[in-house]
Amino acid sequence: MQEIEAGNIWDYHKNNNWVVIPTNCNVTKWGYNIMGRGLAWQAAYKFPELPAKLGKDIINGPRDGIFFYEDYHIICLPTKLNVFENSSLDMI
After folding, report:
1. How far apart are CA 44 and CA 63, in angstroms?
2. Residues 11-49: b if buried by 16+ CB within 10 A, e if exposed
3. pLDDT tens digits for 45-64?
4. Cβ–Cβ < 8 Å for 58, 2
5. What is the DSSP annotation of 18-39?
6. Strands 74-80 and 67-69
7. What pairs with residue 21 in β-bridges?
């Protein structure tokens, strides 16, 4: 794993590198994960099907699991249960 502290994460991602996206565990009544801010919002904007896939995986798997999306080279790492909470070091 390589840690990068400066630059645009999506430039790094363009080179077929995996990136980790902090997310929450909320799913709407339509089955979408709420990806409303920061990197999660950017990932949802770049990959519009991602919130539905993540929502389905949260519903069907461990609610606070780590989810890998090989098609996008994205790892979704839940950092909080509720979208309105602060991230939890215990979850990270």
Report:
1. 19
2. eebeeeeeeebbbbbbbeeeebbbbeeebbeebbeebee
3. 999 999 999 999 999 987 77
4. no
5. -EEEEEE--B-TTS-B---SHH
6. antiparallel
7. 76
